[in-house]
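Support reply, case 0932

Customer input (verbatim):
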Amino acid sequence: MSETWHQHRKQQNRDDIIAAGRQLFFSQGFPGVSVKDVCEQAGVSRVTYYKHFQSIDELVFTVQMQALEHLSENIQINDDPQLSGRDRLHRMLQAWSVYTLQNKADMRFILLFDLHYDAYPPDAKLLNQYKAFIDLKKQTHFLNAPLQAGISDGSLRPDLHVLETGEFIFTAMMGLLQKLSFGDPTKPQTHPISQRMIDMILSSLSPR
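Our regenerated output:
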C-alpha cells in the first residue's frame, strides 16, 4: 500500500481518537474517562492510541485547544470590518452569547478543564505547550481587531490597551457564559444577563 494511504490511515486514527475523547469528555467529564474507554469508543487498540498520545491528559489538552479554536472561529466569522470598531465588538459579543447557548457542552468542558488543571497541573512539557498555545491566541485574539479599530475610529476610548482589554473582556464573558451554560436548555438564544453584561462592557469602553 502507498505511503499516502498509510498517512491517511494514521491521520484518520488520530481524528477518531480525538472525536471519541471529545464525545466521552463532554458527556461524562474527563476525570472519569480512561484510555481504555477512548479506545473502545474509537475502535482502536491501545497501541494505536499511544502512537498519537502519550497519556489521557494529552488527549484532554488537545480537545481543549480544539474547543477554544472552535469558539474563536464561530465568533470571528461574525466580524464585519465595514462597521465601526464598537459595532464590530458588539456583533462579536452577541455572537459569543448565542454560541454559548448553542454549544453548552463545549463551554462546560472548557470550565471543567480550567478548574481541574488549576488544581492538578499536568507535567511541565504539556503545560508549557498549552501556555504557548494560549499566549499565541492572546496575540491573535478575535477581540483584538475590533478593539484596535474602535480606538482608531474614535468609537472606543483612546486610552485602551488592546491586549489587556481583550483579556479582561474574555475573562468576564467566559465566566458569565460558562455559568449560563449550566442553565435550562430550553432558554432562548439570547439571555438577559448576558445582554446586560454586553451593555456594561460597551459602556465602559465607549468614549466619555
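We compared this against your earlier run and they match. Two observations from our side: The CA atoms of residues 69 and 92 lie 15 Å apart. The domain at 1-53 is CATH 1.10.10.60 (Arc Repressor Mutant, subunit A). Please reopen the case if you see a mismatch on your end.
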